[in-house]
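Structure tokens please, single chain.
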Amino acid sequence: TAFSPGEGRTVQLAAVVRDFDDDLRNVHWLLPDGSEVEGERLEFEAPEDTTRLRVRAVARDEAGNIGEATVIVRLPEPELAAEGAVTAQAEDFSGQGDGEVSIVSRIGNVGRMITMWHANPGHWLEWPVDVPADGDYVIYARYATQSDEAVRSLTIDGQSPGAAWEDLRFASTGGFCTVEDNWAVKRLGEPVHLTAGKHVIRMTNLAEGLALDYLTLVPAE
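Here you go.
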């Protein structure tokens, strides 16, 4: 189970139990902190210090028979969970030039992801975003890279938000999520002011490889 940015961090789960004798006694949920909750439905707020939870459900009937299941819940970082966040999934780019990325699924990505964005300096991709209201927004990228440092530039509607956006540096995360979850979230710069409506974000390869899961615009506080 994976949450997208803007969906909050309230975990809601329901146990689906097949009991042919219809004599279910109870369902216990075992939470990551060691606590237990009884009931066929579970709701709790995820701790702010984690983006991955393992929850186990154990069902017992009157005869003492037990069935159990485990679910892994992946959550956005707390700063990405706010209502009003706008997300562009990396694989939903509307155009690219001077190269071609691959769209794949690997460990820990939400939806799908893009990779093979390294060979050609100048290789760009564009994503449409629909901003719900006028305001200042912070842009985050969920990325992975095995390179020591990948470099990209970013424009909005063909314009650079400032000099810092022309030299965005992404530190190594240890891999491209082929063996383990290497995803990291980077705040790309200071808040940018956007009007309500449609905009286009373009990112251009300046150096090294970068896998991208999504871009998220979060209303600035």
